[in-house]
Amino acid sequence: MDLLQLKYFQKIAEINHLTRAAQELHITQPSLSQTIAKLERDLGVPLFDRQGRQIRLNKYGEFFLKKVEPALKLLEEGRRELIDMAGLERGTISIDTSFLPQFSDVINMFRTSYPDVRFHISQVSTKEQQVQLLESGELDLCITCRPIKRTGICNLPILSEDIVLVVPFEHSLADRQSVKMNEIMNETFIHFKKGHAFRDDTDELCQKAGFTPNIVCETDDSKTIIELVKSKMGVAFWLETLLEKDNPFHHLHITEPKCKRTYQLAWSEKRYLSLAARRFRDLLIKSFAS
User: Are 249 and 226 in contact (CB under 8 A)?
Assistant: First the structure.
């Protein structure tokens, strides 16, 4: 039994399909099949039930996977610690992030000092996935708009910014610089689809102000929101850091209640965090604190 067999076994268990697993592993499907067959011979039991290209763990495979996954995680942590012993010159930092103002500037600043450290940046779709990846050690850091409330997950607020209202230049509010939430409860809104983090934030703010926004158009695309506001279809909530010098709309600050979005930096204190990841975390904190 060798490490490669265990990694191949784990990938098939994750995907349940030989051909797709081979594609992700960048090997041929016959080669993958032969590797797993050898692993099963070494163990003396079949690990999968097979039906064509479909392949699923049987009871032996499910039991073995529970042993393989923590073993591979420990080996990965050992690899990271060895890299740290050798210094910061190389390694990979894995981060999951939603939009964060000036985030790319911090990465560029870090890479100026450590040019051989690589970044793996993802955007998973759910909070549950973020928690799972942090707890498994597949993610070093996570930047979210809300704290992750889970034992063993550390959360640190690193930046807050104002949420503003944007309206067409011809709108009745376009001659004002500020507005209260109770003044916009009858407006028609353009917004992101439900499930988008910014949509969830502003829906909650509206509920606290005593109304449900009348959303006439939902989209996944921020540029579409801008175009629809510009075309006078409605108004929209927006982030202050996304404002530009020549916006195609007028923006107003929301004064009552004060509407803000706070970004959280999260990591697992139960998993090993590489020296590179710790240094980058400290740089993030320092950069946004200043």
Answer: yes
Beta-sheet pairing, 141-144 with 91-97: parallel
Instruction: Confirm if 36 and 4 have CB atoms less than 8 A apart.
Output: no
Identify whether residues 37 and 170 lie together within a single domain: no
Average pLDDT of the residues in 26-55: 88
Q: What is the CATH number of the domain that holds 21?
A: 1.10.10.10
Same domain, 246 and 232: yes
16 has pLDDT over 90: no
> 59: which residues sit within 8 A by CB, 6+ positions away?
none
Q: Are 49 and 189 members of one domain?
A: no
CATH number, domain at 105? 3.40.190.10
Q: How far is residue 260's CA from residue 214's CA, in Å, rounded to a whole number?
A: 21
pTM: 0.65
Quote the DSSP letter at residue 242: G
Structure tokens at 119: 């970044």
| Domain hosting residue 7, numbered range | 3-79
The share of the chain scoring above pLDDT 70, in percent, equals 96
Nearest-angstrom CA–CA distance, 11 and 202 = 39
Q: For residue 36, which of 27, 26, 47, 25 has the smallest C-alpha distance?
A: 47
Shared-domain flag, residues 180 and 215:
yes
State the Cα angle at 159 between 236 and 97, rounded to 5°.
75
pLDDT at position 65, please? 93
Pull the structure tokens for residue 284: 């993030």
Alpha-carbon distances, residue 224 vs 124, 187, 227 (angstroms): 22, 18, 5
